Amino acid sequence: MTTEHFERIRPIVGPWLDQAEVAVWRLPAAAGLVAYLAASGVRRWRWDGEPAAQQQMQALLQAQHGQHLALDCQAFTQAEPPSLMLAVGDGPTLAQHWTTLRRWSVPLVLALPPTAERAALARVVFVDDDTAAARRWLLQQAPGPWSATRWATAQPLIAGLARAVLLRDTPLARPDLLAGWQHGQRVYAWEHPNLPLQAWGETPPLGTPEFTPPATPRGTLLIAGLGSLGSVAACALAPLFEQLVLVDPDHVDAANPVRQAFPVSSVGQPKAQALAAQLAASTHGPAIHPSNAADQQRDLHQPTPAHDAADLRLPAPPAAMHPRPASTHGPAILPANASDQQRDLHQPAPAHDAADLRLPAPPAAMHPPPASDHGAAILQPVPQASAVPTIHAYSCALDAATTATLIAEHGVSMALVATGTAADFAIAAALRAANVPHIVGRCYPRAHYWEAIIVDGERGPAFDALRGHIRPGPSAAPTPEQRAAYSELGALEAEPATLIESGWAAQWLARLCGDLRQPQGLRPRYLLQLLHNEQTCLIGGTQVQPTAAGPAYQIEQPGQVRAWQRQNIRQAAAPGLQKLPPASTLPALVWMEDEHEQTD
Asked: What is the 8-class DSSP label of residue 111?
C-alpha cells in the first residue's frame, strides 16, 4: 500500500504540474475540468466567478485531496500571468469576452460543451496564433442548451488537452498532440449527437437531435468492483436506479482518492460502505433511514444493525456542484458488509459506526455542472430523479454463486462489472444465465485505452466469447512498468493513471449502462446499431500511439471509440474454424467461427 496521495501518478505527471498555475474563467461551468486537472496535481488556481462558487470549488477539492494538494488559490485579477487560461461557455459569449480571455499572453483552452446539434468542441490558442481567427471561429459556433450526458464524457478529454498544453515543453509531452500542433491543428471535437464514438481534428458537421427519454429511475443496478471505474460510474448512475447493490472486498487506501470517488477521510474504510455513504451525502435527503423488516428479509437474510436515523444525518453537497432537487425521503443504505473473507452472503454482517457515514460529497468531476455564461445552471449534470436509490453495500468478493444470490435477492435488472480481475468471467456468466443486461469494463495499462463489452442479457455474444479473443489492430507498446516486470503479468493492469484517463472510461461505462437500461424502444440509435451488428466490444483511447503496423488498437484520433464484433476473433486455425476475407465495413477480420458453431 502506498503512503502518498499522488505517488502512483508521478511517472505520468512529473513535478511540473505542481508549479503550473491555471486561470479559470467562470465557475461553476468549468468545475469539472478543474477537478480533473486537480486530480493530476494542479494546485495553483485563479478562479473567476461568484465568491460562493469559488469557495465551494475549493472546499470540494480539499475534501477530495486534503492537505496533499496544498491548494493555492488567487484572485483572477492578479497581475502575474498564469501558465494557462481555461474557459468554458458557448462560442459567442467567449468571443464577447475575448479581451478578458486574452488579458495575458498565455495559451488558451476554450471548451464549448455539446448541444443538441453540435459536438463538444475545444480550441487551443497559442501565443503566436492568429487570435482574430480564433475569435471569428467562436462567433460561428451556435449556442444552445448543453447536453449533460455527452458533456460528462467530453470533459476528461478536454482536461487531458489542457494538461498536455501545460506539459508540452517537458519530457512528458504528448507526441500525438505535438505533431498535430506543429501542423496547425487547433480544434478538437467529440460527442457528435449522431456519431458519439467518433473524434475529429476539426469541427464536424452539425447533427440531428435525438429524442432523449425521461430519466425515470427504474430497476436495480449491481456494481461489482468499486475502483477507478466502478466508483466513479456509480456517482453518475445512482439517480437512474431505484436500488444500487455495491460490492467490493477491498478497503480505501491512501492512493485511491486521487482518481476514485472516495475523499481522503474515507481511507481505511471498506469501499462498499464508504461509497454508499458518499452517494448518500451527494443527495439532499435529510437522513439515512434504518432498514425495516422487509428490507432485512430482502437483504440476503442478513440481520441489519439498528440505527437512530437522527444520528445518520449527512451534510448536503454544495448546490453549485450537485444541483439536484431536495427529496423528502433520504436514501436507505442497507448495510450488508461481510468481512473480506466471508464469501457466503448469508452470514451476519458486523455493525457500523454511524459516524463512519458522515462523508462529504463526491468530487466535482463526477457531476460537472453545466452552467450558462451568467452563472445559472441551465442543465443538470445528472438526470433529475424524483427519489433517491436504496443502497445495499457488501464487502465481499463475488463468484458465480454469490452473484446469482444477489440477483435473486435484489431483483438485479442491470449490472456493471469492473473488478479488472478474472472474477469478471464468473460474474458475467451468472448475469447472462439470469438474462441480466450487463457491461464489463476495464482499462489497459496506464488507462490510455479502455475496453467495454456490452451483453444484452441472453442476446448476442457473451462476455467470455469476446474478452481475450478480439484482435483490435496492433497493441500498444509495453509501458515502463511492464518492461520492469519483464512481462505484462507482473504489472498492475491500469497503473499508473490519473482521473483524466480512467475518468473518461468510467463516464463511458456509466453512459452505456444508462442507455442499456432503457427499454429497446427508448435506446439511442448508436446503441441499437451496435447491438444489431453485434459490435459489442468497444475500445476507446485517450491518445494515439503509433506502431509499425499502424496506430495502436486502430485509434486514429484522441477520444475515438472503436466497435468490434465476434468476427474479429484472434484464434489459431482449428476444426470448425475458417478463414474469412476482410470485410469492407470492419478492419482486419481474421478468424470467425463456422456458421454452424456460432453459439456462445
From this structure: E
- Quick: pLDDT tens for 532-551: 999 999 999 999 999 999 99
275 vs 349: CA distance, rounded Å: 17
SS3 call for 274:
helix
**402 φ, ψ (degrees, to nearest 5):** -70, -35
Q: What is the pLDDT of residues 218-241, one digit of tens each?
A: 999 999 999 999 999 999 999 999
Residue 387: the pLDDT is 56
Joined together, the cell numbers standing for residue 131 give 487570435
**Whole-structure pTM over 0.85, yes or no?**
no
Tally of CB atoms within 10 A around 529? 12
Average pLDDT, the chain: 80
Half-sphere exposure of residue 478: CA atoms within 13 angstroms, side-chain side? 13
Cα–Cα distance between 423 and 396 in angstroms, integer?
A: 12
Q: What is the DSSP string of 510-561?
A: HHHHHHHTS-GGGS-HHHHHHHHTT--EEEEESS--EETTEEGGG--STT-E
Exposure pattern of 443-460 as b/e (b: 16+ CB <10 Å)?
A: bbbbbbbbbbbbbbeeeb
Estimate the share of the chain in helix, then strand, then coil, as percent rounded to the nearest 5: 35, 15, 50
